[in-house]
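notes to self, project folder thing:

trying the whole complex as one job this time. last attempt i did each chain seperately and stitching them together was a nightmare. two parts in total, labels are on each line so i dont mix them up again. if this works i'll redo the older ones the same way
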Amino acid sequence: MFRSHANKSYADDILRLALMSAAVVAVGILLLILLFLLRESWPALQRIGLYRFVADAGWHPLEGAFNLAPMLIATLAVALGAILIAGPIGIASAVFGQFYAPPMIAASFKRMVALLAGIPSVVFGLWGLTVLVPIIAKWQPPGAGLLAGMLILAFMILPTVALTADAALKAVPDQYLRGANALGISQAGLIFNVMIPAARSGIIGGILLATARALGETMAVLMVAGNVVQVPNSLFDPVRVLTANIALEMAYATTEHRATLFVSGLALMLLVVALAAMAGKLGGRLHG
Amino acid sequence: MANLRLRDQLFTGIVWGAALLVTGSFLWLLSDMLIHGAGQLSWSFLTAETENAGRAGGIGPILVSTLLILAVAMLVACPIGLATAVLLSEFIAKDNRVARAIGMSIDVLAGVPSIVFGLFGMAFFSAYLGLGFSILAGGLTLACMVLPILIRTIEEGLSAVPDEWRKGAAVLGMSRLSALLHILLPAAAPALAAGLMLGIGRAMAETAALIFTSGYVDRMPSSLHDSGRALAVHIYDLSMNVAGGDANAYASALVLVIMLIIINNIALWLATSLLQKRISHV
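result (full assembly):
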C-alpha cells in the first residue's frame, strides 16, 4: 500500500471520489434491501402484528389467517436434518482429502467436491424430484417430504462443509503434526485429538455457513419437499418451508398476504445474516 | 493396544466410506444427467424456438434471455465492483473504520438468500422503478447479488501484487491514477477476469431471484424491457409445472452445468496459474 503525499494530483482526487461513490453504491444496496423489505412488510407488521404470525389458526392468507409457525418449524427441521447429515460426512470428506487419500486421488476428490459446489440448486431439485422422490415414494408414499428435502439439501451444502473444513485443517500449523508424530500417536488419535480440535473454529464456521445456506435455499427444497403447510409428524410428511412459500405465493399475493410474505423474507434474511456473521467471526469463509 | 488398532481401522473405514458415499452420489447425479439429458442435446436444441411450453422445440430464446440478463448484470456490477475493490485494497487501510464498515456490509450482502434478492428486485426494480417483469429488472437484481463475489475476488487479486511495485511507481513520480491504470490493474488482470467468471457462474445458476423479476416468458425477447426466461428458471418450470417436460429439463440442466463447468475452470485457471506467472515474470 502506498500512501505518500508527494504525488497528490487533481486526477487522484477525482479518482478517489469516484471510487468512494462506487463503494457508497455497494453499501447502499444492502441498506436499500433492508429499507424495501421493511417498507413492503410494514402493512403486515402494523395491522397483523408479530403475535398473530405464530397464533393465527393456520395459514389461510385469503381468509386472513397468517400463521407462519408451521413453515418456520419446517424450515428449521429441514435445515437441521441437512446439517446433521452433511456435517459429519463433509468433515470426514475433508479428513479423507487431507490425511487418508493417496495424493492422486486426493487431488481429483477435491476437484470433484469443488465441482459439486458449483452445481445450481435447481439441478439438485430436478434430480431430487425425478430420482430421489420416486425412490422414497416406493418405500413411504408420497415421497416428496421432509426426508427428501433434508437429503437434497444435505447433498447441496456438503461441499460447503467439506471445503471449509479442508481449508481449516490445512491451516493447522505443521508443528502440531510433527509433535504428535514424535509422541507416537496413531493416525486416528492424531486427527481426532489434535487436528480437528486445532481446526475447530474454522470447521464450526463452515458448518454455520452451510446452515445459513440451507435455511436460505429455495429451489431445491421447493422441488422435493411436497409444499403442504403443516407441522411434520414424521420424516415422510410433506412440508413447506418459508422460502418455498414466498416463491409459490408471491405471484398472486396482494395486500396483507403480500406484506406477510415480505415479513417472512425479512425474518429469513435477519436469521441467515446473523448466522453468516457468526461464521465470518469464526473464520469459516470460502473466499478470502 | 488391540483396542486402539481396532479404533484406527474403524476410523479409516468411516473416512473412506464417507468419501465413497460422496463420490458415489456425485457419479449418480452426473450419470442421470447424462442419461436423461444427452440424448436431447443437438445443435437444433440449442437454437430452436421453445414449443409446447418447453416439451418440444429447443432453448434458443431461453439462451438469448439468459445471456442478456447476464450481460446487464455484469455491465452494471463490474464497474461498481472494480471501483470498490480498488478503494478497499489501494486507498484505505484495512483496519480503517470505513474499510471495515464497507467490508462488513459486503459480507452481509453475500449472505442474503437469493429469494430475498428476488423480493427486493420485485419491490424495487420492477415496481418502484417501474421496470416490470423484464430482462433489465432481472439483470439489475443479479448485479446486486454478484457484487460481493466480484469485490472479494478482485480485492484478493490486487493484494497479491507485491508492494514493491507500488513503491516503485511512487518513486517514479507516477500519479496514483496512472499507477493503477498502467501497473496495478494490468498485473491483477487475471484476478479481474476470474472475478468476472465467478460472478457470471453465480448469476447463471440463479433461479429464485429471477422468478419475480425477469419472469417466465419463453419467447425470443425483442428488447431489454421484455420478460425473458433464464435457463435455470426454464429447468424449474419444466420439471415442476409442465407434465412431460422432464427430458428437456434434463437436457437444459446438462447445458447449464456444462457452461458452468467451463466458466469455473476458466476462473480457476485465471486465478491461479496466470496470476502467479504474471507476477513472478515481470
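what i see at first glance: Confidence is low (pLDDT under 50) at residues 1-7 of chain A.
need to look closer tmrw
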